[in-house]
Amino acid sequence: MNYSILPQEDYKKKIKYRKNEFRCYSKKQLKERYPNKDYKVVGETKYNNKKEALGTLRAGGETYSVSQVKSNSRILWAERGYAAVGKDSYVVLLKSRIPFLLILFGLLIGFCVCLALLIRMLVFGPPDLPPLHPLPGVDSYVESMTDDPTIKNPTPAEGGGSVAMIYQLKASLSLSSGQIGIYFKNPNASNHDVAVQLYIVSGDKEILIAESGLIEAGYSLNRLDMIENAATLQEGLYEGKFKVIYYNPETGERALVESDINDVLITVTE
C-alpha cells in the first residue's frame, strides 16, 4: 500500500527526519479531533524503518517504509506525530527515545552515586581526611621528663630549629621477649619532635630492627620492640646506629635533615 501525507491546515506538530520536515497532528490534537476515538492508525514509520513493510509513505522526495503498528519497541521509539493519509486514517511518525534515555540514565547514575554517598555518610560519618603531613603516633613507651630543667626554644619563623638530644651509645636486646632497652631523651628545650630508628650495621649493610613512634619534646624513651623477622641474631655484641627523624610539632612536616648516631653497641641476649 502506498501512502501520501495529506496536507491539513490545522497541523501544529513538526517532525524532522534528516533533511525532511513533516507537519502532522500531535497526540493531543488527535484526541481533540476524535473524542470518540473513531479514527484508524494504519501503520507506523520512522527513518530507516527495518520492520516488515505493509506499505510505503512518500514525502519530501523520500520513501519511508510503513510497518505494522507497535512493531517497533515503544521503549526505544516514541509516537511523536500522526500524519493523515486518508479519511480518518493516520500513520504514526516515530522518533528515537535514545537521547532522552541517555540523559535519564546519566541522571539516574548521578542520583545513585549521591544516594550511596549519603548512606555512607549516615552510616560511617563524614570522611576522615588526613593532614598534608601526618605525624606518626606518639610512642606508647614514652615517659615524661619530670626532672627536665630546660626551657623550650622558639621555632624560627624561617624554618629550621634545634634538638637537644640526650642518649647513650648502647642498647640491649632480649631475643626471648623482643624488647630492646635504650636510653634516649628529647628535652623540653627541643623545638622539634623526633622518632628513632635502630639499625644493626654489618659491613656495608644496615638492617632496621626497631623504630619508635613520636617522642615529643620533654619526653624520654627507654624501650623499643624488635621488628618481627627483621633479622636472625645470636647472643653477643653487634655494631649498630640510631637514625633520628625530626618533625615540626605544629605542621607535622618531616624535616629533610636526619641525624645518624653511630658506634652504638647492641648487646643481644637470650
Set down the secondary structure blueprint.
Layout: E1 2-4, E2 13-17, E3 20-24, H1 27-33, E4 40-45, E5 53-59, E6 62-67, E7 77-86, E8 89-96, H2 98-124, E9 143-144, E10 166-167, E11 170-174, E12 179-186, E13 193-202, E14 205-211, E15 219-225, E16 236-247, E17 254-269
Parallel strand pairs: 1-5, 4-8, 11-17
Antiparallel strand pairs: 2-3, 5-6, 7-8, 9-15, 10-12, 11-12, 12-15, 13-14, 13-16, 16-17
Q: Can you put this structure into words, describing what you see?
A:
The model has no long low-confidence stretch (mean pLDDT about 90). The longest helix is centred in the middle third of the chain and has 27 residues, at about 100-125. It contains two helices and 17 strands. The protein folds into two domains: about 1-100, no CATH class; about 145-270, Immunoglobulin-like. With about 270 residues, it is mostly beta strands. About 15% of the residues lie in helices and about 45% in strands.
